[in-house]
Predict the structure.
Amino acid sequence: MINKIKKQGLRLTPQRLAILELLEGNTTHPSAEEIYHQLKLRYPSLSLTTVYNNLEMLTKAGELQEIRIKSEKRRFDPNPVPHGHFLCRICDSLSDLDAGTLEIRAPSKYRDYLVENYTVYYYGICPVCLARGNKRKIE
Ligand SMILES: [Zn+2]
Ligand SMILES: [Zn+2]
């Protein structure tokens, strides 16, 4: 990821590097606020605006994927390749879920269209919450 960024000529500021390190291999799809709170311990001068700007820039550069499954909470994924996501309505966790049954993949040519991206959102109850049998909320 880091080498790719250097190739694109993006400057690797300490904050940008810290965001990338935090996200590398991270499958929890953290929000900008969560990323900010985790980095704030190591970079006390860091502002939420800086985190937002960097996330936006990295998303534009194709290094991250922004997930707008909930409009009030944007979340980020270090995997820029299109894939499905599952949002648990009980614990708010967001996990990768790809059924692999989509007829149209991206990027691909489909009929006369060049499909560059797609978004698939699933909603429901995650395995952890199901196992906990949080029945009051489930029913
Ligand atoms: Zn859950
Ligand atoms: Zn994902």
Observations:
- The CA atoms of residues 63 and 80 lie 6 Å apart.
- Residues 88, 90-91, 93, 126, 128-129 surround zinc ion (ligand 1) (CB under 6 Å).
- The first strand starts at residue 65 and ends at 70.
- Strands lie at 65-70, 73-77, 85-88, 94-96, 108-110, 113-115, 121-124.
